[in-house]
Write a structure and sequence with these properties.
Blueprint lengths: L6 H27 L6 H24 L3 H14 L17 H4 L3
Helix pairs in contact: 1-2
Bound molecules: magnesium ion (MG).
């Protein structure tokens, strides 16, 4: 594979993919069994979400992505989901802007 990535970048991306997989599994189990079942929110979803956020931040640093670029991408997404009809069940007006919740 000739991807011009350093070993650290390869490891960072690999770990991010693994953590995303674990978060996907935690989301799936909440959908199947509910958040109260075996305390899945506290024991699974929150730790895995933290792992994903950690490796997103680590990968940003490893790949030379500035925190303001990430914050800008989050702000862009926040604006895109506010287009009427984009989300069917989530009242976007009731949510705080995630870009302001997760401080980068
Ligand atoms: Mg994990």
């Amino acid at each position: 594979m000739n991807n011009n990535l350093t070993p650290a970048q390869v490891e960072g991306l690999t770990l991010l993919m693994e953590e995303c997989g674990e978060l996907i599994q935690a989301c799936s189990k909440i959908l199947r069994f509910g958040p109260e079942s075996r305390d899945r929110l506290q024991k699974d979803w929150i730790p895995e979400a933290g792992d994903v956020l950690y490796f997103i931040a680590a990968n940003a640093e490893l790949l030379g992505v500035g925190r303001y670029q990430l914050k800008g991408a989050m702000q862009d997404k926040h604006e895109r989901v506010q287009v009427p009809g984009r989300l069917q069940n989530i009242d976007v007006d009731s949510l705080r802007n995630p870009a302001t919740i997760i401080r980068l």
